[in-house]
Design brief:
heterodimer, B: seven-stranded mixed β-sheet
Chain lengths: 110, 114
């Protein structure tokens, strides 16, 4: 079983749509959770951390369900510039090694 | 601005050649990492380092070695390149201490082994 699993997509949505990405992780000892964004032919960059209580950053909302070992990212009012691959990332300990999912591609069209 | 610089964006090497991929960060970070990224496989950790002269194996260290003689520099070495090492290699760094989850990546080095 893969450590971090994501639907690879692509998700094709029109501008203004709301889109949700899901991610599951297999290691119940995982402690920290993140979403990264990777633009085409660019390096990954941290989008946001994911907290147990859920957290929001503008149009982006992240949620964590530890019991189900499930993480989600919701993007409201999609923009063309949101087109990218979204990587679900978990950390198993206080150290800095991160395990990346394979990513979900989002394509936002006019 | 935070900066991780990888010495070569594109390299083409022949099977059996020794390959050096260099990475330098200017943020005084303790932690440095080498990942490879392949279509359908995502990012996979090769090696990482928490301090100068210290290294730890990641998930796929076979066929690779690393060197960290100075805090700012982390080198990935392919002793004898093989075609299955054709990939995008990404270096990253992060500060020591509490895990904030933020890795700062370089732009990547695309290696082709013929």
């Amino acid at each position: 079983r893969k450590e971090v699993e994501q639907d690879p997509g692509p998700f094709n949505v029109p501008e203004g749509a709301t889109v949700a990405f899901n991610c599951t992780y297999s290691n119940s000892a995982s402690q920290s959770f993140f979403w990264y964004r990777q633009d085409c032919r660019k390096e990954p960059k941290l989008l946001m951390s994911v907290y147990s209580s859920g957290n929001e950053d503008g149009r982006f909302t992240a949620q964590l369900n530890r019991a189900s070992q499930y993480i989600s990212l919701l993007i409201r009012d999609s923009k063309l510039s949101d087109s990218a691959t979204y990587l679900c990332v978990v950390s198993h300990s206080g150290y800095s090694t991160l395990t990346f999912g394979k990513g979900t591609m989002l394509l936002v069209s006019p | 601005d935070v900066k991780v610089t990888q010495s070569s964006r594109y390299l083409v090497k022949r099977t059996g050649e020794k390959v050096f991929l260099e990475c330098v960060q200017d943020m005084d970070h303790e932690n440095m990492f080498w990942y490879r990224q392949d279509p359908g496989l995502g990012l996979r950790l090769i090696y990482f380092s928490y301090d100068v002269k210290m290294k730890e194996k990641g998930d796929i260290p076979e066929g690779y070695s690393v060197s960290r003689e100075k805090k700012e520099r982390f080198s990935l070495i392919l002793e004898s390149a093989s075609t299955n090492q054709t990939s995008m290699y990404l270096c990253a760094s992060s500060p020591g201490g509490q895990n904030t989850g933020e890795l700062f990546f370089g732009e990547g080095s695309r290696l082709t082994v013929l």
